[in-house]
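User: Just a sanity check before I run the rest of the batch. Below are the structure tokens for the first item. I only need the designed sequence back.
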């Protein structure tokens, strides 16, 4: 079904195919995609979505029209699938909307652009409650409002699937800047980061360690939730008896370790720092999605240079992490170096550049040894506990 033509003003009573059409039943927490129909569900979702300042024609027509004052636009997309990318036992619908927005918005910011608009496609099981879909919409709205005011949702699609899928496409405007690529780092540049390092990685490790019950299915998903949202009504607790064990375990972990679990489930990316870095002359930039060492390696390979991460800086990042959550202990530096999904911005700046206030220097760009780009920590290759050397075969391993 194509939601771009849906009229946000359409009432659920008017919805074609709505089994309750003509009735005056109020919205109920029991309503599902199957019971109210897609048009009525959309009529409840649309008013919750954020408006985009750049929308010349917003939702409600066959397609949106978005201003691109620069004459070019930045575009990126990211798909989140229940199972590989999130667990419904751990993420609330609001978390999912928030994270789907942030993962895309941070990619736009990492190019040096200001996000302008999102397009959102959701495929959900028929048993998904409309309340859950509203929660996803609220997460999208709140992430835009908090991190990128003026960015909004200009269109989308709602479809049915056995597995919950959120696919978001984000657009951005460069406002006359050159895009900041991964390939521009040069020896002598400083390496700097804006945003958290290691929090989200520590958070997912904690969820895996303590947020699963013995009742978890072999694939790690709680029984009965593999193909749909768990039937949880936290507001009333009326159905608390059917909380899956993993939902309860996940909530306990979240309550005990809020800093790291929130960073994993609802990450905060310093989006405004992206355009500021571009204005300050950043030579290369990306968002840290797969871990500092791996993502720094992507800049190293693309730029044909080596990136040295200062030992003292990594130790300081580890201390920050331990101060936020004392349970992390000796693993903190590993989370700093290898934890992904923080969606911080990693950039290189030429000598003499004045770094935007969000950035802190953690290293420097050096000549590649024998032309071989590497990432080093304190002058040495970093070897993870267990022996995996992320510096082996850079060119083959890093895409
Ligand atoms: Mg990225």
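Assistant: Here's the designed sequence for the first item:
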């Amino acid at each position: 079904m194509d939601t771009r033509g849906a009229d946000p003003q359409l009432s659920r009573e008017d919805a074609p195919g709505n089994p309750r059409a003509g009735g005056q039943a109020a919205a109920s927490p029991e309503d599902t995609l199957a019971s109210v129909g897609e048009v009525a569900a959309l009529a409840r979702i649309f008013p919750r979505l954020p408006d985009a300042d750049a929308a010349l024609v917003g939702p409600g027509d066959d397609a949106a029209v978005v201003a691109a004052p620069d004459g070019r636009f930045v575009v990126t997309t990211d798909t989140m699938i229940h199972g590989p990318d999130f667990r419904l036992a751990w993420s609330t619908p609001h978390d999912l909307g928030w994270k789907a927005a942030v993962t895309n918005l941070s990619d736009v910011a990492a190019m040096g652009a200001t996000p302008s608009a999102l397009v959102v496609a959701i495929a959900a099981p028929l048993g998904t409650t409309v309340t859950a879909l509203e929660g996803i919409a609220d997460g999208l709205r709140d992430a835009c409002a908090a991190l990128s005011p003026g960015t909004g949702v200009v269109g989308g699609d709602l479809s049915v699937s056995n597995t919950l899928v959120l696919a978001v496409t984000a657009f951005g405007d460069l406002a006359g800047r050159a895009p900041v690529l991964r390939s521009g780092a040069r020896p002598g540049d400083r390496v700097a980061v804006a945003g958290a390092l290691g929090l989200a990685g520590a958070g997912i490790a904690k969820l895996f360690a303590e947020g699963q019950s013995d009742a978890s299915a072999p694939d790690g998903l709680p029984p009965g939730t593999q193909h749909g949202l768990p039937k949880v009504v936290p507001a009333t607790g009326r159905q608390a008896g059917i909380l899956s064990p993993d939902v309860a375990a996940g909530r306990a972990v979240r309550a005990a370790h809020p800093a790291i679990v929130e960073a994993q489930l609802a990450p905060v990316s310093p989006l405004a720092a992206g355009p500021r870095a571009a204005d300050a002359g950043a030579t290369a930039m990306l968002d840290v999605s797969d871990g500092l060492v791996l993502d720094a390696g992507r800049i190293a390979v693309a730029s044909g240079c080596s990136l040295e991460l200062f030992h003292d800086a990594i130790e300081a990042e580890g201390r920050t992490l331990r101060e936020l959550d004392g349970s992390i202990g000796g693993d903190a530096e590993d989370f700093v170096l290898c934890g992904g999904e923080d969606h911080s911005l990693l950039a290189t700046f030429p000598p003499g550049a004045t770094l935007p206030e969000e950035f802190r220097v953690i290293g420097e760009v050096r000549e590649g040894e024998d032309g071989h780009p590497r990432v080093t920590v304190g002058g040495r290759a970093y070897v993870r506990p267990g022996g995996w050397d992320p510096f082996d075969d850079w060119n083959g391993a890093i895409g």
